[in-house]
Design a protein that fits this description.
The protein is α/β, with parallel strands linked by helices. It has eight helices and seven strands. Strands 1-7-6-5-4-2-3 form a seven-stranded mixed β-sheet, with helices on both faces. The longest helix has 14 residues. The two termini are about 25 Å apart.
Length: about 190
Amino acid sequence: CTWYKRRFNVELDPEKEVLPLMGSQDGLAHIFMTYIDPGDLALIPDPGYPIYSVGLHLAGGKKVSLPLVPEQGFLPDLTAVKPDIARQAKILFLNYPNNPTAATAHLAFFDEAVAFAREYDILICHDAAYSELAFAGYRPASFLQARNAKEVGVEFHSISKTYNLAGTRLGFVVGKTEVISALALLKENI
């Protein structure tokens, strides 16, 4: 919580808004088991980190691809999501700095994503595993810096990537209290 406050100027309640993970991928996979029932839709970036599609598949959900194209700066065009699809979607996955495109997202995009999630009652899962891998003075934003972000989402971090400890399986998720609680309950029983 101290690091998050110092790095992103975001206040977190250590008892209700933080959950340690066995690597960020652990949480990324389990969030689908927590929130997706068979047949539920999730908005998944394409291209995207494989666990987004695999975790969704294992939970029985259906993928709605969000194309990441150069013309959009490799950001999903949320206005292109049809309203009937958005109303059915349970989760929207984001990942900035992005793997595999290396694209970045600014706070204005995260504000847009929060407004979209609020309008359609969608959980945003932001994979921020690469937030500390930046160059030339650039400092990636946290999704949770957006207005009302903690009302609609969570952010996953990888300590292994941040501190060059690949394979040590250290990570955490922060954000919306109800999501942290539900994910913690699932993980307690696995």
